[in-house]
Amino acid sequence: MAEHQALLPSEEPLRLLDESGSRVDGSGLPMPDTRRLLEVYGSLVTARRVNDQAGALVRQGRLAVYPSSHGQEACQVGAALALSDGDWLFPTYRDTAAVIARGVDPIEVLTLLQGDWHAGYDPYERKVAPQATPLATQLLHAVGVAHAARLKGEDTVVMALCGDGATSEGDFHEALNFAAVFRAPVVFFVQNNEYAISVPLARQSAAPSLAHKGVGYGVPGERVDGNDPAAVLAVLERAVADARAGGGPRLIEAHTYRIQAHTNADDDTRYRSGDEVDPWVARDPLTRLEKHLKRKRALTKARRTEITEAAEAVAAYMREGVVEGAEPEPAELFAHVFSEPTPQLAEQAAFLAEELSREGL
Amino acid sequence: MATEKLSMAQALNRALRDSLAEDPTVHVFGEDVGPLGGVFRITDGLTAEFGEERCFDTPLAESGIVGMAVGMAMNGLRPVVEMQFDAFAYPAFEQIASHVAKIRNRTRGRVEVPLVIRVPFAGGIGGVEHHCDSSEAYYAHTPGLKVVTPATPEDAYFLLRESIASPDPVVLMEPKKLYWAKGEIDVERPAAPLGRAVVRREGADATLIAYGPTVPVALEAAEAAAAEGRDLQVVDLRSLVPFDDETVCAAVRSTGRAVVIAEASGFASVSSEIVARVTERCFHSLAAPVRRVSGFDIPYPPPKLERFHLPGVDRVLDAVDDLQWEDQ
Ligand SMILES: Cc1ncc(C[n+]2csc(CCOP(=O)(O)OP(=O)(O)O)c2C)c(N)n1
Ligand SMILES: [Mg+2]
């Protein structure tokens, strides 16, 4: 087989479960065991609940904005669960559910969208980089973290997330190339949800698939059904294991769909029809795994209750934590610009403090 | 000709529409500018009216957008590109600083790139990080770029029309918090050439110099000062490059006192350039040092803290009070 052929993704996205939840031949992809699938299912239910709750908080005016991953939860959960504690996750603005699935405090995650500060959580605590908004820029940071880990003799793997639109940015290509040249242990995981705001995939790329983009850099590409929770987890776990064993980077494209508008501020009726969305609703990752587990009689009533209650607890925690009227301190504006405030910043901080004291604040 | 009441967003849309209709070389492109009409709807309806070749979405890459615009301009077209937000123009900075700004000079004037880069900029809309930068100084500091910024719908219309007509590349900084503000506009009025400031309000005691998002702040401050018996003049720069020394200095000489108001951080900024120019040229007419009210030297704050950062009326009035009045 010519060398480049080993880099090419499969003709069709890999799958373990079809839309009815039935097991299909996964071209050698190992099926996660039932215990693991139940864990995935629990995380999916929570991820969906996180998306719904955040959406409700936006409607109530308690969050400024929320880019939902509704319909993409299999990818969110897979990305988080495929990693070990010592690994790193590099998420985007759309990956709130993944960040929470990795164990970051939901309220700290929502700091950004509440408008209190930019990155609300400590990236070192759960090894989750700040959610990146400037598209594809974080992918190079992911390569740097992975390369540093190798130089330090650590077996860390880095999961770097981006969307289909972001693959058009120069940084995406530089990241793949750097990772390949340095054999950095990075799993590039592209959630192809068919849209970049209003722009459909066909306007991003003329390649046979986004996973094909790895070939030119010497990075093996794989395609997976992004709404098949079993396949997503299996593909990502395999890529993480390969990267950890010194196999270098992987590019994985998940075929999924953005069920909701880009954010609450977007009006998707201007660029797509409901007819296009409907079939994707039928491919919902939650119902797919649920059907599978039910068929296997693995989802007991007790387990179900437990899972629902856990998800509700997260939602309740979000509602309580996102409180109106809790205001950040203006003095903090000057606190983190440098390790020590410059003389000019100290002067400006004093100016603001004086101004506020005059206003009796 | 009757005037119309349009928002700044509608005025910019009208300018693009009129340019597309009049000049077949004009092409509009960027991210989400096609069927969606842009995230701020500045290009609303243009693809439907002029076709997919004249107004189109590109792949998501700002360096690609500006780089392709350079080539199209080299080959006789007039590209008008949209950067979705201020901070998302940074991937294009290489193309802007190394090529857009320099190609005329490098080729001894043989190649010109008459393109327009539209940048929604500045804050005041409760936007999260990377959506509120005041990035005008990066462009103004780069020789070879014209940099203009409207504060009214009418100026938005004419500045965009004139930018498209300009043989030089122009960065049009659009104050996004003013997109929805309405104003009277007469599209048949003869356009002022690029590079002219305008006195928005006459006043004898001191001059407020503002541009883009701070012009309404200056006008509001002048209104408040009038109630306290102080008569403030307001100058709207409209163009940062070229800079209208004549209008600005005539205004400052007429009052002898000046405050510059800008949202951007003050350090090494457009506002510091204005203070330097005015001080160099009007020193003997000045009764007090020229003061600045600008953003702090910090990254743009999160939504809940932006009000502490943005120049507001009170801060402007405090600065005016500080101008060494004889009665103090
Ligand atoms: C460099 C840069 N340019 C533009 C934007 C504005 N923007 C935010 S999200 C987005 C679409 C991204 O699409 P995709 O990568 O497919 O991710 P999705 O939102 O679908 O998850 C755009 C254009 C940005 N954040 N960064
Ligand atoms: Mg997308």
Give a topology summary.
The complex is a heterodimer of chains A (361) and B (328).
Chain A: H1 3-7, H2 34-59, H3 73-81, E1 88-90, H4 96-101, H5 106-114, H6 137-151, E2 158-163, H7 170-181, E3 186-192, E4 195-196, E5 199-200, E6 221-225, H8 229-244, E7 250-255, H9 274-281, H10 285-295, H11 301-321, H12 343-358
Parallel strand pairs in A: 1-2, 2-3, 3-7, 6-7
Antiparallel strand pairs in A: 4-5
Helix pairs in contact in A: 2-3, 2-10, 2-11, 3-8, 6-7
Chain B: E1 4-7, H1 8-22, E2 26-30, H2 46-50, E3 55-57, H3 62-74, E4 78-82, H4 93-100, H5 103-106, E5 116-121, H6 136-140, E6 146-148, H7 153-165, E7 170-175, E8 182-185, E9 198-201, E10 206-210, H8 215-227, E11 232-236, E12 239-241, H9 245-255, E13 258-265, H10 270-282, E14 291-295, H11 306-309, H12 313-321
Parallel strand pairs in B: 2-3, 2-4, 4-5, 5-7, 6-7, 10-11, 10-13, 13-14
Antiparallel strand pairs in B: 1-8, 6-12, 9-11
Magnesium ion binds at residues 163-165, 193, 195-196 of chain A.
EC number (chain A): 1.2.4.1
InterPro entries (chain A): Alpha-ketoacid_DH_E1_comp (IPR050771), DH_E1 (IPR001017), PdhA/BkdA (IPR017596), THDP-binding (IPR029061)
Protein name (chain A): Pyruvate dehydrogenase (Acetyl-transferring) E1 component, alpha subunit
Offer a concise description of the structure.
Chain A is α/β, with parallel strands linked by helices and 361 residues long.
What report would you give on this structure?
- Chain A: It is an enzyme of class 1 (oxidoreductase).
- Chain A: InterPro entries: Alpha-ketoacid_DH_E1_comp, DH_E1, PdhA/BkdA, THDP-binding.
- Chain A: Pfam families: E1_dh.
- The complex is a heterodimer of chains A (361) and B (328).
- Chain A has 361 residues and is an alpha/beta fold.
- Chain A folds into two domains: 327 residues, Thiamin diphosphate (ThDP)-binding fold, Pyr/PP domains (Rossmann fold); 33 residues, no CATH class.
- In chain A, helix 3 runs parallel beside helix 8 and helix 6 runs parallel beside helix 7.
- The longest helix of chain A is centred in the first third of the chain and has 26 residues.
- In chain A, 47% of the residues are buried.
- By secondary structure, chain B is α/β, with parallel strands linked by helices.
- Chain B contains twelve helices and 14 strands.
- In chain B, helix 8 links the parallel strand 10 and strand 11.
- In chain B, helix 1 packs parallel to helix 7, helix 3 runs parallel beside helix 4 and helix 9 crosses helix 10.
- Chain B is globular and about 65 Å long.
- The mean pLDDT of chain B is 97.
- The interface between A and B is large, with 43 and 37 residues.
